[in-house]
Amino acid sequence: MDLKPQSDKSSTAYNSKEFINRVDELKRTHPRSLYPSEAWSLYRILPECKNVLDLGCGGGDMAEIVNVISKSTQYIGLDSNQNLIDIAKKSSFRGNPRFIAEDVFKYLEKKELFECVMGWAFLYAVLDPYKLLELMVKKASKYVLFDIRSAAMNEDVLDMSRSHVVYGENKGPLPIVSFRNFIDAIRGYEEQLEEVEMASYYFPFGPHVVIDKNIPEPAVISVVLKKSSTNSKTPKQAVKWHMNLPKEFWEELS
Ligand SMILES: C[S@@+](CC[C@H](N)C(=O)[O-])C[C@H]1O[C@@H](n2cnc3c(N)ncnc32)[C@H](O)[C@@H]1O
Fold first, then answer.
1. Which residues contact 206 (CB under 8 A, 6 or more apart)?
2. Which residues partner with 250 through β-bridges?
3. Which of 65, 75, 80 has the most ligand 1 atoms within 8 A of CB, as the residue to mutate?
4. Which residues are 157's β-sheet partners?
5. Ligand 1 pocket residues where CB is under 6 Å
6. What tens digit of pLDDT does each residue of 200-223 get?
7. What domains can you pick out in the chain, each with its CATH number?
C-alpha cells in the first residue's frame, strides 16, 4: 500500500502504517461485528435520520453497516487520515457514501448541519474530547451518538504521559474522562436537549493501549443525545435522563 506522510502530529499513531494495517485486518462491514456500544443505539436511531456524519470513520466500513440498517440514511464519513479515506473511496460500499479527508476540528466549524453526528472510538482518540463534544452537539440537528472511556475519578486524564495508544513507533491520544466531569459537561448542553441516554459496561482495552496503573478501570459509556426540536412551539420540557451504569458511577452522582 502506498502510504503518504500525514501532517496531523496530534494523531501520529492513527497515521501509522500499523494502524492502517489493523483497520484493513478488522474489516468490520457487517452489523454482527458491531460492538454493544454501537449496536445499542444504531438500530433505533439511524432509521429516524436522513443523513449521518461519522467522525473518525477510518476505512469507512461503517458506511456498509449504515446501509444495511437503514437504506434511507445517507452516510458521510470523515477522517483526517488521507490513506484511510483513499481506502474508503476505493471500497465498493453500498448506498453511495461520501468520504471527506479533513481534520475534525476544522470541518466541524463549517455551517452545514447533519441530522445525526456520531463518533465511535473517536472521543477517546483526540486530545480534547470536550471541545469535540461541543462541536458535535452544534453540528447535529436531531441526534449525537458516541462512546467514551470514563472512570470514577476526580480529574480527567487528557495527558498522553498517563494513557495513550501505540501503533508501531507512534503514540496517539487516549483521553479518559472523569465520570463526574463528563456528566457536568452534558448538563451544560441541557438547554439544547430533549433526552440523554447512557449505557455503560466494562470492556478491556486491546494490546495497543498503555495506561497508568493508578487510573481506576475505565468503562465504555455509550451515549445518545436527542436534541430538542428547534421549531417546537411548546415550552421546553425538562430533559429526560435514562442511565444504565455500573455501581461506581452511581456513587459518583450521589
Ligand atoms: C480509534 S480509530 C476509530 C475508527 C472507527 N471509528 C472505529 O470505530 O473503528 C480513530 C480514528 O480517528 C481518526 N482521527 C484521529 N484524530 C482525528 C482528527 N483530529 N480529525 C479527524 N480524524 C481523526 C484516526 O485517523 C482514526 O481513523
1. none
2. none
3. 80
4. 176
5. 8, 11, 14, 56-58, 79-81, 84, 103-104, 120-122, 125-126
6. 999 999 899 999 999 999 999 999
7. 9-253 (3.40.50.150)
